[in-house]
Amino acid sequence: MNDLPPHPPLDQYYRHASDRDDFVRALFDRGAPAYDQVNALCSFGSGARYRRAALQRSGLKPGQRVLDVAIGTGLVAREAVRILGRPQDVIGVDLSAGMLREAGASLPIPLIQARAEAIPLADSSIDLLSMGYALRHVPDLTGTFREFRRVLRPGGSVLLLEIDHPRSRAGGAALRFYLGSVVPAVSRLLGGGQEAQMMMRYFWDTIDACVPPAAIEGALSEAGFTSVSCDVQLGIFRAYRARR
């Protein structure tokens, strides 16, 4: 089974695919303190409401156990806690220690520093696995999805939130200008400095180079998931869902 990177190596940031983890970890460690503020620029007003609705549409309800992979500062996990009512039912995993510190400052949930493709949890121990806008940072989609399937209970669900190019050429140009130029520049001016500017520039470049949605859905199927689907809102926000 061949690996499927979410995008080719980005030479302007690192030379080889093997350097990706170290680069991403350092980038998000440095940018973590400014992440919530600059992330609001990318949500177009959807933010918490969109994340909560996406979790609810995935069937999340009290009594279940959630794993939020690449938790970042906890934006998706926070909405999961609101739905479940019990912080101990949500676990957060992230490669970046800086992001975990930010998440832990506001969320009293278990936090683990680990890679998405090597989750230190038991087989069949999670009801719903979520990942918000971080799929582009793993080294191999199919291998990562196999690991997601391993930790999910039979009947469990995966929810992957991502940003994609709009269909129209004009919409694509507008998104490129906004996420590729405006957001990085404003992120720096808002106090995030050069670290936040680079983080958000990398954010856009990974979106721009990402494999198409059909490849992501195909990787989910190849990893053994069923009922693979994808909802699209505002032409750019994608919610991939699948079931073990």
From TrEMBL:
**Keywords from the named record:** Menaquinone biosynthesis, Methyltransferase, S-adenosyl-L-methionine, Transferase
Range of residues in the leader sequence: none
Protein name (database record): Class I SAM-dependent methyltransferase
Known InterPro entries for this protein? SAM-dependent_MTases_sf (IPR029063), UbiE/COQ5_MeTrFase (IPR004033)
Q: Which GO terms describe its biological process?
A: methylation
Stored PANTHER family? 2-METHOXY-6-POLYPRENYL-1,4-BENZOQUINOL METHYLASE, MITOCHONDRIAL (PTHR43591:SF24), METHYLTRANSFERASE (PTHR43591)
Any GO molecular function: methyltransferase activity
Listed CDD domains: AdoMet_MTases
Under the heading Pfam families, the entry gives: Ubie_methyltran
Q: Which PROSITE patterns match?
A: SAM_MT_UBIE
